[in-house]
Structures are given as structure tokens and as C-alpha cells.
Amino acid sequence: MTVNSITSGRIHSAIAQASSRTGVDFSYLLGQAKLESGLNASARAGTSSASGLYQFIEQSWLAVVKKHGAENGMAWAADSIGQTNGGRYTVADGGTRQAILALRNDPAAASLMAAEHAADNKTALEDKLGRPANGTDLYMAHFLGLGGAKKFLSAMQNDPGASASSLFPAAAGANRNIFYASNGQPRSLSQIYDRFATKLGNASASAGAEPAAGTANANYAAQALDVEGSTVITGSNQSAEDALSWATAAMGRFKGDAQVASASLLRPTPDTARLAYMMLARMGG
């Protein structure tokens, strides 16, 4: 197995785990990561502070970690983040701040926080629209912000053919290739929405999206699984036969082991990682 395939498997695994944990569609999360970073966990923007699979800028990252870090095994990070009266997120210790920001380049942490953020947007959009929010709706919230997405989608429900640039002049000025056709004609709300839907779908397909979100699949180089309450990253791509044999012998040895119970999402032990993969294969992945 090549380094690239191992890395790709780890990223797919992290996204699958985030999807399973939050209920956000796997294909959407995979497509978003493909569009944002090309599935490169180390990607960095040249014109902003954006970094990682989902290209979080520093303030957006600190905000989502402050809100959802503790429930996802990053309480140390969430507890270190404060907020000024003006709403800016800060971390008093410089070293701790850098460590928190560096988590953007960890596939597991980045995927979880992206999924949590998308889940928040999904709830808010559904409350506003009175219908289930799909992946394209969520990407509109990513592109325009939650408030902009609410405005865009509500306006599109009322008048799909309305000019998008007239409703979003600032965004249109910064993204002419999205809001205007090559001949200079302004695109309608529905045209932009459909282009995003196509772009997101193509990105998911090219990245190898599976048909069911969060479904266990032994074809991945790695998989995520919850073992006795501890989330671990799994996988050496052993056969199901090897997995069943090993798991039968190993289950007794690990039962009640504190090492399993204390394993974390971001720092799995080799033993718990392999055990989890074997359990996954036994479940029929």
C-alpha cells in the first residue's frame, strides 16, 4: 500500500467518522473537502489564514472548537479559548493557540469540526426554510455564511429566476465567475444553485464518495469505529478472514483493558486501532 493510499484512507475514515457522529451526509463532507483543499490535510491558503481539509480561517476555527470541542475530545482546547466583548476569539497562551490552530491539519479534528458546523447550519436552515436541508444548501451556507444562505434560499423559493448579483452585490463583486456567465450576463439564483449542486456532486464522485453516509466499508484503507465508548482510527486493510481470526483471539485479552477505555479519537493506540478494525470486519464491512 502506498503512502498516498494510506493518507487517502485516513482522510476518508475521518470524514466517515464525522458523518456518523453528527448525522451530516458523508458525500457532502467529502465533496466539500475535495473542493476546499483537494483532500490535502496540509493545504494552506496564500491569501488568508485558511488551513487544512476544510480551509478554516483562524477565527472560524476557534469559534467552532469553542462550541463543539469539548464534546469531541478536545476540552483542553475549548477551555483555553476565550472571547472578547467585541466577539473576537482569543487564546491567552501563544503555544496553546498554535496547538489549537494546528488541529486544522488533523483530518479527524478538521472533519469533526466541519461536520459540527454543518450540522448547526442544517438545523438553522431547516428552521428557516421549513424543509430538509441538502448538501447544496449547506454549501451555500459555507459560501455565503448562514445569514446569506437563508436570504439566498428564501429568495430562490419565491423567485428562482431573480438575479443573484442584485441581491448579493458584494459577493458578486468578489466572485464574478460565479455570479456572471462568460458573456457578462448575470446568473439567476437557481442557475448559481444548480452550478453549486453540480460542482459538489462532481467533487464527491471524483473523491470516491460511497453511496451511504457513514456505512462501514472494508474497501477503505482505514475505517472509524466506536470501541466500548472510545473512538479510534482503524485499519491495515486485512482480509475479513484474518480479521475474524485475530478478533476471536484478541477480544478476551482486551476486555476490560483501561487502555481501550481511555483511547481518544486523535491519539488511538496501535492495539486499539487494530482491534477496532477487526471488529469492523466482523460486523460485515
Question: Summed up, what is this model?
Answer:
The protein is mainly alpha-helical and 285 residues long. It has helices spanning 3-22, 26-37, 58-68, 75-80, 94-102, 107-129, 135-158, 164-167, 169-174, 176-179, 189-206, 240-254, 258-261, 270-282, and strands at 81-83, 89-91, 223-227, 230-234.
> What class would the helix/strand composition place it in?
mainly alpha
CATH class of the largest domain: Mainly Alpha
Query: Which second-level CATH architecture of the largest domain applies?
Result: Orthogonal Bundle
Could you name the ranges where pLDDT drops below 50 across 5 or more consecutive residues?
211-285
What features would you describe in this structure?
The structure is a single chain. This protein has 285 residues and is mainly alpha-helical. It has 2 domains: 204 residues, Lysozyme, CATH 1.10.530; 60 residues, no CATH class. It has a two-stranded antiparallel sheet with strand order 1-2.
Provide tags for this entry.
4 strands, 285 residues, two-stranded antiparallel ribbon, mainly alpha, disordered C terminus, globular, Lysozyme, single chain, 2 domains
How are the elements arranged and paired?
Elements: H1 3-22, H2 26-37, H3 58-68, H4 75-80, E1 81-83, E2 89-91, H5 94-102, H6 107-129, H7 135-158, H8 164-167, H9 169-174, H10 176-179, H11 189-206, E3 223-227, E4 230-234, H12 240-254, H13 258-261, H14 270-282
Antiparallel strand pairs: 1-2, 3-4
Helix pairs in contact: 1-6, 2-7, 2-11, 3-6, 6-7, 7-11, 12-14
